[in-house]
Amino acid sequence: MNTDITVIILTKNEETNIERCVLSAKKVAEKIFVVDSGSNDKTVEIAKKLGCDVVNHEFVSYAHQYIWALDNLQITTTWIFRLDADEIVTDKLAEEIKKECSIHSTDDINGFIVSFKIRFLGKVLKRAALYPFLNLVIWKRGKGNYSERFMGEHVVLTEGKTITLKNYCEHDDTKSLDVWVKKHNWYSTREVVDYYARNGKNETKQNIYQNAKKTQKMRDGFYYRLPLFFRARLYFWYRYILKLGFIDGIPGKIYCWLQAYWYRFLVDAKIYECEHTSIKYKDPGDLK
Predict the structure, then answer these.
(1) pTM of structure
(2) Is residue 29 within 8 Å of 138, Cβ to Cβ?
(3) Bridge partners, residue 5, by sequence
(4) Rounded to an integer, what distance in angstroms lies between the CA atom of residue 103 and that of residue 30?
């Protein structure tokens, strides 16, 4: 069946996740591109074995990687679907995607927003991960591109409207907490670089979908105006108490704690470091 959808997956050492991701993507994809940034495990081997077109490109940021992919890959389908290596397209979502892509192939609906359920430490988080987490990940070729940010990148439509699909995609990274901590230390540096790069800039005029616009305003217009370190504590209480993250038990508590008191607190610590010492963070490049 010709589904008229190309799936793009970015990878770097994703051998524990990539097979599951690709097999789920095959439910909707006419073609799957894996853009790898120098994996030294079996990621590329597995992807090729599963029939993916694998290309290598040096990593600058997620946004730049997607921008490069959109400019250089031989994409001929009407629709493009960005899928992370630790995400799984559920059966119900696959059927809905195929149906909606067919219905809206020639009208002004140029993007689909998908809900994500996050599985953490073996448990689907109903509250701690602020479900539904919404992201515009499917759009018509030539009708969207990525905003150039070090962190918090999102698809910007050049024209047209979006609709939100009813079914969800599952985010389930099978790698260890040790990897999670290492990655989020890397994220925190990118966040600090992005924080200073954004200073004084206004992105709200871009044609971004409503949920991304709301998140952007909350982060840039509210969160970062709160005092250093206090905002990390407030973020924890917001997610764990106000949004009922405690309902998700121990995994929920760990998730909220790490997001606030590891990641968000570390971002603030690095901002403090930049403002009180001679340290100035630069783009860290790819995750080592």
Answers:
(1) 0.88
(2) no
(3) 79
(4) 17
Q: Answer positive or negative: Cα dihedral of 193, 195, 201, 203.
A: positive
pLDDT at residue 282, as a whole number: 86
Q: How far is CA 41 from the centre of its chain?
A: 22
Pick from 165, 179, 173: nearest CA to 95: 165
H-run or E-run covering 165 = strand 161-172
The pLDDT assigned to 218 comes to 59
Rounded to whole angstroms, the Cα distance separating 248 from 250 reads: 7
The full DSSP string for 196-261 is HHHTT---TTS---HHHHHHHIIIIIIGGGSPTTHHHHHHHHIIIIIT-GGGGHHHHHHHHHIIII
Can the peptide bond before residue 227 be classed as cis, meaning omega within 30 degrees of 0? no
User: Looking at residue 2, what is its pLDDT?
Assistant: 57
**Distance between CA atoms of residues 154 and 281, nearest Å:** 23
- Residue in the block written with tokens 């930049």: 274
Gyration radius of the chain over CA positions:
19
* SS3 at position 32: strand
Per-residue confidence band for 202, with pLDDT thresholds at 50, 70 and 90: very low
158, 139 contact by CB (below 8 A): no
In the chain, the amino acid numbered 91 is D
Confidence of residue 147 (pLDDT cuts 50, 70, 90): confident
